[in-house]
Specification:
2 copies of one chain form a homodimer. Chain A is α+β, with helices and mostly antiparallel strands and 250 residues long. Chain A has helices at 21-34, 47-54, 58-70, 121-127, 176-184, 202-208; strands at residues 74-77, 81-84, 108-117, 135-144, 147-157, 190-199, 215-224, 230-239, 244-249. Chain A has a 6-stranded antiparallel sheet with strand order 3-4-5-8-7-6. Chain A is elongated and about 65 Å long. Chain A binds a DNA duplex (19 and 19 nucleotides) through residues 7-11, 14, 20-22, 46-48, 56-60, 62-63, 65, 76-82.
Chain lengths: 250, 250
DNA sequence: AAGTGGTCTAGACCACTCT
DNA sequence: GAGTGGTCTAGACCACTTG
C-alpha cells in the first residue's frame, strides 16, 4: 500500500546449498576452469561480462574472483585481466636446503634412470592407479657448483605421461613442471611437501657422494592438477645438515 | 551550471603516502591496538562507529578490518564483534612430531632449571638486548605417555619477565603463552619456527633418555608481541625419527 | 528486540596496460 | 583512448548472538 515499501534489492532464491552467491559463483567458475573452458595462462572474460552472464552485480562477481585468486586458481593483474594460473613455477626444492656453494644458482639436472614399472602400493594409492597399473619411474640427480646435492625419486602415471617415456632424457628441461605442461598437457596447480628425517641407503649415498647411512632430509611432494587429481609423487633426498626451513605462525 | 555535473563521490586528498584509504586506516588501527587502546581479547567499536570516526563508508572500514583479520591482528565473529586477538594458543610444538604413544594428549611439563644469565650473542641480538644484559634462562622437559619427548631451551628478556623469576616453577601452567599474558602482560601475537637437523649433546640426550649424538630435529622459535618486539627465543629438541611436517604449496 | 558482522546492489571514479 | 582491474560510496537486507 505505502509507496515507501519498495524493495530496493530484489532477493533471489536464498542459499540453495548454504552457499553465498559469490561462493557459488566461485565454485562454478572453478569447475569451468578445471573443465578446460579457459586453459591455464589464458584470460577470463572481464568482470563486466562475467557479472552480467551470472546476473549479479560486479562487486559480487569480484568477490568470487578474489576468492579463487586467494586459492591460487586465478591470478589478477591490474589493467590487464584475470588469468588462469599456469603451472607452479620452480616450486624450488632448494628453499629447504642451504649448501655453502652456488647460492641462487639454478641446479643442473641429470636423469640417472628411466623405466616403466609397477609403483609401490603407497605411490599407486596416491596416484589413484588401479592395482598393478604401470607408471614411469625416474631417478634424477641435481647438482650445485658441480657437486651432487639432491636425489629425486619420481613416479608419474603412465597413460598421462606417455610422451616422456619416448623422448631422450638428455633433451629434457631442468624444470619439470613447465615441461609437463608443454609435453603432456599436465598443469601442476597445487602441491604438498612432507618433511621427514632419514638415513641414506648405500645406493642413494653413492649418488650423492656421501657415506652410507648418512642422515638425510626426505621431502615427499604430491603434485595435483586443477581437477584435484594427483599427477606426480616425488621424493627428494638431501644432506640433513644442509636442511633448514622457516615457518610463519599467526 | 548543469545539474547533472554533480560530483557523487567526493574525493578527498588522493593517497598521501601511496596507500589506499583502507590500508591507511588499517595501519592506524594496528598502531592503536599496539599502543594498548584496545587490550588483547577486548572488542573494538562497531563498524558503524569506526566508519563515522574515520569519515569513510562502512564498506571501506570493513576492508581495513578484514585486512587486519587476515594478518592475524584481529578476529571477527559474526554477530558478536571484532576482537583483538589474544595470545597465540598452544602453537603446539607437537604438530612437528609424531610419537607412537599418547596422540592428542596434552604433554606434561617440567621445568628442569631456572637461572638468570647473560644470553649468547645471537639470542641477545634477537631479543634486542644491550650487550651484557641479563635474561631468564629455562630448561624444560615435556613428556608424553610418561616418556620424555621434547627438551626446550628458553630465553626471556628480564625486566619484562621478572614475575617468572620469583614464583615457584612447580605452580606454572603447562602452556606458557597464556601464562606470559596473565603474569607478565606479554601477549605473543606472531612467531616463526626455524627447523634444522642436529645431533644431541650428551646432556640433552640424558634428559631425553636417548643415546648421546642421537639425531634430533631442532626447532628454534622466535615469538613476537603486537609491537613487533621479540619476547622469547625457544629452541626445542626432539628425536629426528619422530619428526614430520607437511606444507601446502600454491 | 537490538546490535553485530556478512552479503549484495548500482554506480562513480582511479590507476594501470596496451595499442 | 579503450579496456581492465582497484577503490570507494550509500544504502538495503540477511544471519548470527545476546539480553
Amino acid at each position: 500500500m505505502t509507496s515507501s515499501s519498495k524493495l530496493l534489492v530484489p532477493r533471489l532464491e536464498p542459499h540453495e546449498a548454504g552457499l553465498s552467491r559469490y561462493a557459488a559463483i566461485a565454485a562454478s567458475l572453478r569447475a569451468r576452469v578445471a573443465a578446460g573452458e579457459w586453459p591455464p595462462g589464458s584470460a577470463l572474460p572481464s568482470e563486466q561480462v562475467l557479472a552480467s552472464e551470472q546476473g549479479v552485480a560486479v562487486a559480487t562477481l569480484r568477490r568470487a574472483l578474489e576468492l579463487l585468486a586467494a586459492q591460487g586458481v586465478l591470478e589478477r593483474v591490474h589493467g590487464r585481466g584475470t588469468f588462469v594460473r599456469a603451472s607452479l613455477g620452480g616450486a624450488p626444492m632448494l628453499r629447504f636446503f642451504r649448501f655453502g656453494d652456488g647460492n641462487g644458482e639454478i641446479p643442473a639436472s641429470r636423469v640417472l634412470q628411466r623405466r616403466e614399472a609397477t609403483p609401490p602400493e603407497e605411490v599407486a594409492r596416491e596416484l589413484g592407479l588401479p592395482h598393478g597399473a604401470r607408471a614411469l619411474h625416474l631417478l634424477r640427480l641435481r647438482c650445485l657448483g658441480g657437486r651432487p646435492r639432491l636425489l629425486e625419486d619420481i613416479w608419474l602415471p603412465l597413460p598421462l605421461f606417455q610422451a616422456l617415456a619416448e623422448t631422450p632424457t638428455a633433451g629434457w628441461d631442468a624444470l619439470f613442471y613447465p615441461m609437463y605442461a608443454q609435453r603432456c598437457g599436465v598443469h601442476v596447480q597445487r602441491a604438498t611437501d612432507s618433511i621427514a628425517f632419514d638415513t641414506l641407503t648405500p645406493a642413494q649415498a653413492a649418488h650423492l657422494q656421501l657415506p652410507a647411512r648418512h642422515p638425510c632430509a626426505r621431502v615427499q611432494r604430491l603434485a595435483f592438477d586443477l581437477t584435484g587429481r594427483c599427477v606426480e609423487v616425488r621424493t627428494t633426498y638431501g644432506d640433513a645438515h644442509a636442511f633448514h626451513y622457516t615457518i610463519q605462525i599467526t
